[in-house]
Write a structure and sequence with these properties.
166 residues, mainly alpha, 4 helices
Length: 166
């Protein structure tokens, strides 16, 4: 209890010295870390309790014994979406283009909004943060496109194969 009181006193002393946005940011980061630790410990505890209550044959990861085997004709074919693959060149290019576009748009936007009041450090911060956001959005778009394209191609091949077998 003494340690918690000392830590809270130190935290409050730091919060008093920070500007309001700094204090809010620090509290947000500390709250996020506390919720992460709490969720992790709760999940570990619940997983342990759940594993103790299950019978031996129903542990996650083990295949239960089937009483009525399913005929192979009913089961769906496995797809390539379950496989791991390295990043495609298109995803890398989309990430790079997104980062460049984000940096340009962010720099132009902050220049237009602030004009002469903009400092070099402010311009650099806005450009870098916009590059990060643009790169993330480019990576997300490129990844979605590659997954969609691969799934579409595989579905087209599967449908062509079924049409030929009928």
């Amino acid at each position: 209890m003494l340690l918690v009181t000392a830590l809270m006193g130190g935290l409050l002393a730091v919060l008093v010295r920070l500007p309001p946005m700094g204090a809010i940011s620090l509290l947000g980061v500390l709250s996020l870390a506390a919720c992460h630790v709490l969720g992790n410990s709760l999940g570990t505890r619940l997983r342990g309790l759940h594993a103790e209550q299950l019978p031996e044959t129903e542990f996650p990861g083990r295949v239960p014994k089937q009483r009525h085997p399913v005929p192979p004709a009913i089961l769906a074919n496995t797809t390539q979406l379950r496989d791991r693959a390295p990043l495609h060149q298109m995803t890398r290019l989309a990430t790079l283009c997104g980062a460049i576009a984000g940096g340009l748009v962010g720099a132009a936007g902050v220049w237009r909004i602030l004009g002469d009041r903009l400092t070099i450090s402010g311009l650099l911060l806005a450009t870098v943060s916009s590059c990060v956001v643009g790169g993330f959005l480019g990576f997300m778009g490129g990844s979605f496109w590659e997954i969609f394209r691969g799934a579409w191609r595989q579905a087209a091949r599967t449908n062509d194969h079924r049409a030929n077998t009928l």
